[in-house]
Structure formats: C-alpha cells, structure tokens
C-alpha cells in the first residue's frame, strides 16, 4: 500500500480560465515543485497549453507529472455533448502523452485519470451545501446527464485507455447523498469510478469517511480539502455562490480546519488504499501569492499524520 500526495492548480485560484487574474501555469509548476509535490492535476480545460511537447518539457524540467485531467462543465444539457466529447478528446490526448505518473503498490487503476464534474447552473450554485433547498433534476434531465457522463467515460476508456472518475461537487447536480447514490446506480463501474473529495463532502453536510466507506468499491482517486468552520457557518447563512465562498476563505490549509485527517488516514490504511490523493484549496487567484505557503503547510501537515509518500520521478 502506498498513498501518494499531489496537488492542483485550484490551490492558485485556477478554476475559471476566463478569470483575468490567473497566474501563469509555469509559475504554478515552479511552486508545486518547491512545495515538495511530485505531481499535480492539469487544471481546467484550456489553462495549460494543449501542446504535449511543450508541457512535457516543463514537467520534466521540474520532475513532475500530471495525475489527472478535468471535465468541469454542464453535464446536464444534451446539447452540450459535442463540446464535452471534444474536451474529452483533447484532454485525454494530452495527458496520455505527458510523463506518466508512477504506479503505486495497491493502486486499483493506473493514472492519469479524467475527473468528471457537473457545473454551470445558477440554481444549484447558490444552493451549494443546502440539500433542503437545492432543486433536483427530473427523470428526463437526469437521464440526459447520465448519458453525457457515460459517453465521456466510454470515449476516454476506449480511445485513450483513461479511467473516468465521477467527482461529486458542491454547486453541481451531483452533490448530495441521494444524488451520489443515484449516479452510482446509473453509471456502471465498468465505465467509471469515483473521486471522493473530503472538502466537498463536509461542505455539503456529509461525513467524508462515511461517503468513502459507502462507495469504497468505486473509489479510485481522492481529493483532500479542509474547511474553516467559522467561515463555513457564515457562508451557509447567506445566499452566495460556491466559488465566492472559496474566495472568502472557506477552504483553508489542511490541518487548520475541521476535517479529521488522522481518522481518514486510519480508515484509508485499514482499507489498504494505494494510489493518489490530491490536495486542493480553492481561492481567489488574486490571493495566489499565499498559495506556495499554504500548499506546503498542507503537505507538511499530511506528512506529520502519516501521509508521507512522494513520487519525485515520473515513470518513463
């Protein structure tokens, strides 16, 4: 068993590529390496260039690898299928040409993965974390979303050998316990696994360990976040978008919030989890000057409670 800690560009505020304040992707790579991580996620579609040679050169210069690409888009609209599959093609074509993440003992599925997240609905964005007031999809709309996810997953698997992992996300239409259970029933394990995010679980009123335990047979990749309890209570008391809450600091360095990471380490150890765990801390990119210190603090804390492994060398 080997748990390997990586990170993601969202720690530098990289979520919306239209945001004019995003840091240069090469600066993010510099700081990922400086903080002691061996790898990171690609970030949102369009943030890093779709030039495999250029990105590979920058990664190799820092001994880094990409552990996952991301579909972060409207998965509900049937009219968005062409766009979603185009993104899938381009992301998978890129990540499969980059330095390959090492295969860890006990790892269920080889990386890089394709994380699949629903996003882009005002009515759910403003209801993030509020299961009682968040509208649910009707059966027709739900079936359309499932069809889109399955099409993405099959394309990634059949043409690129990339495993899709469904990521429940605060502010999207796969967020709460009933929705996670429904998507687990409707998308077969043969087509997609799960990426469970501890921070999104807590933000949305769920116990991360209970969610991991419930879907353990489908968990193939994990995200770690931490939540500032006072800020969480405050943002849930207001009508606010999820990323506005993040800009106000609801996400904090791991070990400085309310999530019990020693207990999570004990659970993952007991289960024999081998593979990747990605540290995330969404923020306003205008505050990315503090990102290096925060991701280093997260890594140092995780190391202190047992998450010590770091791969510095990509596989050839």
UniProtKB/TrEMBL annotation:
GO terms for molecular function: isomerase activity. It holds the Pfam family AP_endonuc_2. Residues 29-303 form the Xylose isomerase-like TIM barrel domain. Keywords: Isomerase. PANTHER family: HYDROXYPYRUVATE ISOMERASE, INOSOSE DEHYDRATASE. This is Sugar phosphate isomerase/epimerase family protein.
């Amino acid at each position: 068993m080997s748990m390997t800690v990586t990170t993601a560009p969202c720690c530098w505020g990289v979520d919306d590529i239209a945001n004019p304040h995003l840091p240069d992707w090469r600066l993010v790579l510099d700081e990922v390496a400086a903080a002691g991580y061996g790898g990171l996620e690609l970030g949102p579609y369009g943030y890093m260039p779709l030039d495999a040679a250029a990105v590979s050169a920058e990664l190799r210069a820092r001994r880094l690898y990409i552990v996952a690409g991301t579909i972060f888009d409207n998965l509900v609209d049937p009219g968005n299928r062409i766009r979603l599959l185009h993104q899938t093609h381009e992301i998978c074509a890129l990540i499969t040409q980059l330095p390959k993440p090492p295969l860890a003992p006990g790892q269920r599925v080889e990386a890089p993965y394709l994380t699949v997240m629903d996003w882009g609905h005002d009515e759910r964005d403003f209801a993030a974390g509020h299961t009682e007031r968040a509208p649910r999809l009707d059966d027709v709309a739900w079936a359309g979303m499932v069809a889109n996810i399955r099409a993405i997953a099959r394309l990634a698997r059949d043409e690129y050998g990339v495993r899709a992992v469904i990521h429940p996300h605060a502010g999207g239409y796969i967020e709460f316990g009933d929705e996670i259970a429904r998507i687990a029933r409707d998308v077969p394990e043969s087509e997609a696994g799960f990426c469970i995010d501890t921070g999104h679980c807590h933000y949305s009123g769920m116990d991360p360990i209970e969610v991991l335990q419930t879907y353990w047979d489908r968990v193939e990749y994990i995200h770690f976040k931490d939540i500032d309890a006072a800020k969480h209570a405050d943002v849930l008391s207001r009508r606010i978008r999820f990323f506005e809450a993040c800009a106000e600091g609801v996400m904090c360095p791991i070990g400085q919030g309310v999530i019990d990471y020693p207990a999570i380490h004990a659970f993952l150890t007991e289960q024999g989890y081998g593979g990747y765990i990605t540290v995330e801390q969404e923020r306003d990119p205008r505050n990315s000057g503090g990102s290096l210190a925060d991701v280093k603090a997260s890594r140092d804390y995780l190391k202190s409670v047992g998450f010590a492994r770091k791969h510095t060398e990509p596989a050839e």
